[in-house]
Amino acid sequence: TRKVTTHRLIEMKRKGEKISMLTSYDFTTAGIVDKAGMDVILVGDSASNVMAGNTTTLPMTVDQMIYHARSVVRGVNRALVVCDMPFGSYQTGDTDGVKNAIRIMKESGCDALKLEGGVEILDTVRRILDAGIPVMAHLGLTPQSINKFGTYAVRAKDEAEAEKLISDAKALDEAGCFGLVLEKVPAILATKVTKEISIPTIGIGAGNGTDGQVLVVADMLGMTQGFSPRFLRRYANLNSIMTEAIGHYIEDVKNGDFPNEKESY
Ligand code: KIV
Ligand code: NA
C-alpha cells in the first residue's frame, strides 16, 4: 500500500474523491485506524482533552505533541500523519514557529503540521512552508483561541466573520498550504470556501460540502461521555463495551474464576 501524500489529497479534491481523516494519539489506536484505510491521521492537540483530561487544548506542550506523534507514526504505514502545533509554539512569531515546526518534524517523524489561524499567522505559515514542511490550516472554531471566543458555539454566522474566513482561506491557499480544516461553521459557508480554493477542505461540524471529514476518534467510537454536539455521529458505543468487559474481569477475579488452569503455568 502506497503512502498517502499531500499531493494525493489535492488530486483527490480535483477528482471529487472524499477524504477521510480521524485523530489518534497512540500507537495501538493509530495502527487500527491506518489498517481500516484512513487517508489522514491527525495527532490533534485534542489529546489535551481526550488523553490528559484537560478542559481546553491550551496546556499541550511541544514535547507532549512529539510523544503522541512519534507513537502514532510507529503504528502507521499508509495514512498521512498530520500533527497539531500546540498553543504557544507558533503564536510568538515566525522564528519560534519555524523552530518548533522543525523540532516536531525531526523528533516525531510525522508528515505535516496543522496550525490554527488566518492572516495573523500567515508569515509564520510561509516560513514553515519555506522550510519544506507541509502545512494544513485550520479556520472557524479554533480551540486554541477559546478564551477569546468565550464559547464553543458555531463561528462565522455573521457576514463580517464569514468574509474574513473566506479571505483567510484564500490567503492560506495562495501561501501553499495543502489543506484546510473548517471547524463548526455554517454548511453554506464551508461549501462556498471549498468551491473557491484549490486545496481540500476537511470539515468538522461544517456540513457535507467539504472535500473531507474529520472527527475525534474517542468521540466517534463512543468512548467519551457527556460530549454530544450535533455534528458528532457515534459509530460504536465502546464505553459500554469496555465497561461490560471490565466488569466481567472484576467479577472473574472476585469469584476466583480467573485465571483458570489453561491460563496458568
Ligand atoms: O485537535 C483536534 O482533534 C483537531 C480536529 C478536531 C480538527 O484539531
Ligand atoms: Na486541534
UniProtKB/TrEMBL annotation:
Q: Which residues form the active site?
A: E183
- Part of which pathway? Cofactor biosynthesis; (R)-pantothenate biosynthesis; (R)-pantoate from 3-methyl-2-oxobutanoate: step 1/2
- Keyword list, A-Z: Cytoplasm, Magnesium, Metal-binding, Pantothenate biosynthesis, Transferase
Q: Which Pfam families match?
A: Pantoate_transf
Reaction(s) this enzyme catalyzes, per UniProt = (6R)-5,10-methylene-5,6,7,8-tetrahydrofolate + 3-methyl-2-oxobutanoate + H2O = 2-dehydropantoate + (6S)-5,6,7,8-tetrahydrofolate
Which top-level enzyme class is recorded in the Swiss-Prot or TrEMBL entry? transferase
What does this protein need as cofactor? Mg(2+)
Q: Name one GO molecular function term.
A: 3-methyl-2-oxobutanoate hydroxymethyltransferase activity
Give the protein name, as stated in the record: 3-methyl-2-oxobutanoate hydroxymethyltransferase
Say which species the protein is native to: Xylanibacter rodentium
Q: What is the lineage of its organism?
A: Bacteria, Pseudomonadati, Bacteroidota, Bacteroidia, Bacteroidales
